[in-house]
What we know:
The protein is mainly α.
Amino acid sequence: MPSPQPLPPIACRLGYAGLLPQLAMVAVLLQGRLDERFIALSIAYAYAALILSFLGGLWWGLAARAERPPNWLWFAAVAPSLIALASAWPWAVGEPWPVPSLILLGVALIASLAVDRALVRADIAPPGWLRLRLPLSLGLGAMTLVAALL
């Protein structure tokens, strides 16, 4: 199989643009308007859950493309969707939500860097993967945690 191509510039630009929805929700929360608080928290939650699931899909795609992917990668690729689903549990059973779920998702997004680093070490990720994934995971994870704490 040919070696992976570097990430094109458009992937990087769109990746960074993907931080804008969460940034917008943090900005709304910083305004302190109580009538908009739950809406902003809910959107921040949904966006973090969607992106975490999307990240698992990226890992699945990298595993499917690899000649001999390690078995752990298949499990790692499924975990983000399961974490995102589990984060909805408090809402489903009437427990406090979305703040605890936002904290779980923020931590999971930051922790996802461990898988990204392992993908690079296993020579499965394309060149430049960590250069993009590091600021995106840290950025989205941190903004998700900030949203939970505001």
